[in-house]
Specification:
10-stranded mixed β-sheet; 464 residues; alpha/beta; 15 helices; 2 domains; TIM Barrel; Lyase, Ornithine Decarboxylase, Chain A, domain 1
Length: 464
Amino acid sequence: MDKYKDLIEQTFFFPTEEFKLDEKNELVFNGVPLMPIIEKYGTPLKLSYLPKISSQIQRAKHIFNKAIEKYNYKGSYTYCYCTKSSHFEFVLNEVLKNDAHIETSSTYDIHIVKNLFKQGKINKDTFILSNGYKKENYKEEITGLINDGFVNMVPILDNIEEIEYYEQHAKKHTYLGIRIAADEEPKFEFYTSRLGVRYNDIIDLYKKKIQDNPNFTLKLLHFFINSGIKDTMYYWSELDRFVELYCQLKKVCPSLDSLDIGGGFPIKTSVHFDYNYEYMADQIIFNIKKVCDQNGVDVPNIYSEFGSYTVGESGAAIYSILGKKLQNDKETWYMIDSSFITTLPDIWGLNQKYLMLAVNNWENPYKKTNIGGITCDSMDYYNSEAHSFNVFLPDLKDGEKQYIGFFHTGAYQESLGGYGGIQHCLVPAPKHILIDRDTEGAIHTRLFREEQTPESMMKLLGYE
């Protein structure tokens, strides 16, 4: 076993639903051959496969509604997209094809909401759940939508004082939510999340500020933990504690009818991935119903705010190997034609691992390598996978061209690394290609953005 193809096929269950090889032994991603796109547009490239966004949303809806039916659960399920994961219009356009709703995190998210409304892509009945510790202008924009008749605009209180702004400025009836400050994992540096209202203050907040105000209705409790939705004792104990509080509050607040379970469905970071989405949705519904039944209260409607899960697996970054360097007796470096700091900042900022595969040369022998970006920064490298402490790629003959892909990169990278601005070492933002399918299933590609130009960067730097 010395071919790269043999290594992948014997290490993983390959091919998968998402990845396979064509007749030339070149990589195919979601049924899209990658080499023709590389030959047409060059590298480095950002790719967005839009149908994956819709399929992720539809899968989540299916598994939650299946669990709701299984347990005769009397509440509904509503899918919201967490816009901070990727703010691009093409993402929101695809999301909103699926009867999904929106979760916002900042002032400028509300400007996106206004634009979507102006284009007729949402209406005043769309649920807009507004999270975060809110600056004055964010609260002002939220209140503006409330006063403009967005009946399902729901500011989620992050602290006790926030409600005072809506008391003074909201002229129409306002639905409210409250975020619970969850306990962090034991290994975390802090015991309690900096976000949300303290567990012991929530019922008091309702009684003092909401109960007797005819302009307010408390509709929703919000729950989120940083580790995401995982099958761990920590997650299940926090969920049970959260639902217990819902039940206590429901007994004094009949209008409370919804739980926002936040986000946190993971995405694949390796070809080997064994997370059971169906089981988790099943057990979330089962546990919520169990605790509510024990407390004699009606089960809540369920909201989720999936961000990375929605858009992450739609994205890919494709690079060329510029050259191979042997730096000592055993360390081989493949140098890419871009920078991880520019294009995939989670790699160096969070030590994030992505699903990485060669695009071509699968018949070549494989070789242990390190992958280096072209900046002078010592952190601009990638040398271990989620499943292994090593990276293996095809061994290259002199003059042979190699392309590699990092997959499931669709969430957060532009938000963290910057888009169209000044990049590290003035490495330009790469071309961005959108891939879609028509109603007949035929593949269509289009250029979303050209590679960033030297002129645009010089202008930003003041060299007019």
